[in-house]
Write a structure and sequence with these properties.
The complex is a heterodimer of chains A (413) and B (287).
Chain A lengths: L2 H9 L1 H20 L5 H4 L1 E8 L5 H17 L5 E6 L3 E6 L5 H8 L4 E5 L6 E4 L3 E4 L3 E3 L2 E8 L1 H11 L7 E5 L2 E2 L19 E7 L3 H17 L6 E9 L1 H30 L2 H24 L6 H30 L5 H40 L8 H29 L2
Antiparallel strand pairs in A: 1-3, 1-12, 2-3, 4-5, 4-9, 6-8, 7-8, 8-11, 9-10
Helix pairs in contact in A: 1-12, 2-9, 2-12, 4-7, 8-9, 8-10, 9-10, 9-12, 10-11, 10-12, 11-12
Chain B lengths: L1 H10 L1 H22 L5 H4 L1 E8 L5 H14 L7 E7 L2 E6 L5 H7 L4 E9 L1 H30 L2 H25 L5 H27 L5 H33 L4 H36 L1
Antiparallel strand pairs in B: 1-3, 1-4, 2-3
Helix pairs in contact in B: 1-9, 2-7, 2-10, 4-5, 6-7, 6-8, 7-8, 7-10, 8-9, 8-10, 9-10
Classes of the chains: A alpha+beta (413), B alpha+beta (287).
Chain lengths: 413, 287
């Protein structure tokens, strides 16, 4: 390896581009960091399906209500995302308790009827203007709320003369309290009152707290426009996530090591094995850099995609190397003609490489499409795999491969 | 040695074309009889990996869970301890169960490290998407291959090759009990790409390169192609082994790596017996 060669190599614009991109990637990774997927950092993912496909506006209401409910309920670090027009995906740190799932699944339709369970509706969720913090005394709880003037008017008319009758209150068609409270005399005078409350009792303090919190949260955040059901849930503990990350890194490093070993056995030249490894590593760094800039989640599927795309990258480098080596054997003494030949063979190799990159992207597109259109539900969980593979292949074809070709051109001639 | 082998291959190419086709046929039959396990993401259900305080043998754990589910009023039709390695246990359940119910059941015995439950709606949807994704991946790949070669016979050979690789890989999954999951479908799609890779190399070298005899061109291509395949197999095998021993819960990785390892091994005879044979046939016929 002559100094002149190194200079020629580094000054090439393809090589410069590679070096610059590696530096940008490292900077971006160290400043912005890499967002880890739920399976690596630990957390829960809940998948919901709406009863029917909805328009964007309704979807916004749904995600907003869910987001508000979870925040009010005290669940930390929640992300509510729509997945297409019929799915919603909720990500949160930690494990999802049963109450959270109940909270998400309930449409939150509130109704009150006076006298008996089938009496006309005296008050609905739409009449509620604001909700105050719940109060708990022993196992009894109370959620005070304020109704709109028209709601108060309607309620007063329905309640007139019914003092002492039971008030049946329903949430999503279920009786909130099995022992309904009685309508107080002062509300039965026919004069509208704005301040009302829902009361109930639990078997113990915890249950009372739980019930009060649920009613409070649901009333406060309004009702969901469509029925929602939970279709799937997954949880990974942070400890296991750490194990996954470590395991994946070890597997990746070992894979690169084995690839290097195989290349060395085949060519018996460090000058070939080393650049191939460097190319692999720089590909990983640049893909990670891109992921950190566009805030793309790196999860297990993405790591698999990364390893797979590095694998095809190595294939490409083997093709380039062999194309050039084969021509060298034919032995051309004239230096200039030899360089043209090397260039010709690199061009041949690049044809195969572009063609195989094209087919790989073609095969991955449907998967990536599902991921983007439907979100991370069903086969969309593999979107990370497809997307990372496509990015990896593009980085390979556009950036690292040309640089490697230049390397071969300069050092093998 | 390689040269001698290739000479023989070129002489009896029609016979050699049959070998991968027969393997493909046998794989198909094997799948039909043995079936392929479906992961819970395709058939619905729950899977939990547990960290136990102390080892419990599998049937005891199954009984314990069943008793607890019964007492919580939950009907579960199938409880199955998938792996039991001391304190790390994986349990699969036939119904999609709330993780809280499961947590209650093992409260004093250990903790849940990961939990995944998939309802029937989601699993049916995923199954539908899979046919869709594989169908379109195949279609797009075929279009790309036709655009690249613009000759029907070699293109058809490449596409047939990808199909064979996929069927053989599915046969291998059936044989080694690798379940069909969303992740292993990812492996199969990736396999399409790897399969086309070696064929592209062979076809380009044989049809586009002018110097040398067919045998010497095929020999060069084979040297390159085998290096490619062996490196990829080695990398995937390492990934598979590391995952199985270090992080068995990370089935996404082991599924993808396992499928690719089998498929890449199948790709070797497929490329160098069948596709080489088809190309040789085609070149003869074109003359």
């Amino acid at each position: 390896m002559k100094k002149r060669h190194i200079k020629e190599f580094v000054k090439d614009k393809r090589v410069m581009l590679l070096i610059i991109l590696i530096m940008v990637s490292i900077a971006s990774i160290s400043v912005l960091g890499i967002q880890q997927g739920l399976d690596l950092k630990g957390g829960s993912l809940i998948q919901l399906k709406l009863e029917e496909p909805v328009d964007t506006e309704t979807m916004n209401i749904v995600t907003n209500v869910l987001d508000k409910r979870l925040n009010l309920f005290g669940v930390q670090d929640v992300k509510v995302r729509p997945g297409g027009d019929q799915n919603v995906i909720i990500e949160m740190a930690g494990v999802s308790p049963e109450e959270v799932e109940r909270l998400i699944g309930s449409p939150g339709k509130f109704e009150a009827r006076i006298g008996n369970e089938t009496a006309p509706v005296a008050l609905t969720g739409a009449d509620i203007q604001s909700v105050s913090m719940y109060e708990i005394t022993d196992t009894q709880w109370m959620v005070p709320f304020q109704v709109t003037p028209s709601g108060a008017q309607k309620f007063a008319e329905m309640a007139k003369g019914l003092g002492g009758e039971k008030v049946y209150m329903f949430l999503d068609g279920n009786l909130i309290d099995k022992n309904p409270p009685q309508l107080s005399e002062e509300l039965a005078t026919g004069k509208p009152a704005v301040e009302l409350s829902i009361t109930g009792g639990g078997a113990n303090v915890e249950e009372a707290q739980e019930q009060a919190n649920q009613v409070y949260t649901v009333l406060k955040t309004g009702s969901l426009p469509v029925q929602i059901s939970i279709t799937g849930a997954s949880t990974v503990s942070p400890e296991l996530g750490d194990q996954f990350l470590n395991g994946a890194v070890i597997a990746g490093l070992l894979a690169i090591l084995v690839i290097t070993g195989m290349i060395f056995i085949r060519y018996r030249k460090a000058i070939l094995a080393l650049p191939i490894v460097i190319t692999c590593v720089s590909e990983v760094v640049i893909v990670m850099g891109i992921a950190s800039i566009i805030q793309w989640n790196i999860d297990l599927a993405a790591i698999a995609g990364l390893i797979a795309s590095v694998g095809t990258g190595v294939d490409d480098q083997i093709i380039i190397t062999d194309e050039v080596l084969v021509k060298q054997v034919s032995g051309e003494k004239n230096k200039k003609r030899r360089l043209t030949r090397v260039r010709m063979s690199v061009k041949n190799a690049l044809f195969i490489i572009l063609a195989s990159a094209g087919t790989l992207i073609a095969a991955m597109l449907p998967l990536a499409y599902v991921g983007f259109a439907r979100g991370a539900s069903g086969i969309g969980t593999l979107a990370g795999f497809a997307f990372t593979t496509i990015i990896g292949v593009l980085v390979g074809v556009l950036i690292t491969r040309p640089a490697y070709a230049k390397f071969v051109e300069v050092f093998l001639k | 040695m390689l040269e001698l082998m290739l000479e023989k291959l070129m002489k009896h190419y029609k016979l050699f074309i049959m070998i991968p086709l027969i393997i493909t046929g046998l794989s198909g039959l094997f799948i039909a009889f043995n079936g392929i396990d479906e992961g819970i993401d395709l058939k619905g259900g729950s899977i939990a990996s547990l960290k136990l305080k102390e080892p419990i043998n599998s049937s005891d754990l199954e009984n314990l869970l069943k008793a607890s589910f019964d007492s919580q009023g939950v009907i579960v039709n199938e409880i199955d301890v998938v792996s039991n390695r001391g304190t790390d246990v994986t349990v699969q359940i036939g119904t999609d169960l709330n993780s809280t119910v499961f947590e209650n059941a093992i409260r004093n015995k250990g903790t849940i490290a990961s939990y995944n439950s998939i309802g029937p709606v989601l699993s049916e949807e995923a199954m539908g998407q899979i046919y869709w994704a594989i169908g379109f991946a195949f279609l797009f790949m075929s279009i790309a291959v036709f655009i690249i070669f613009r000759e029907p016979v070699p293109s058809f050979g490449v596409i047939l090759g990808a199909f064979c690789d996929m069927v053989i890989a599915l046969g291998g999954m059936s044989l080694f009990n690798i379940p069909l999951t969303i992740a292993s479908i990812g492996g199969l799609l990736m396999l399409i790409a790897y399969s086309v890779d070696t064929d592209l190399l062979l076809t380009t070298r044989l049809l586009r390169r002018k110097e040398g005899t067919i045998i010497s061109r095929a020999q060069d291509a084979m040297k390159t192609g085998l290096t490619m395949s062996l490196t990829a197999i080695a990398a995937m095998l390492v990934l598979y082994i590391v995952t199985i021993f270090l992080i068995p819960e990370a089935s996404t990785l082991s599924n993808i790596a396992g499928v690719l390892t089998i498929g890449l091994i199948a790709d070797i005879p497929k490329t160098w017996l069948m596709n080489l044979g088809i190309l040789r046939w085609y070149m003869e016929w074109k003359k």
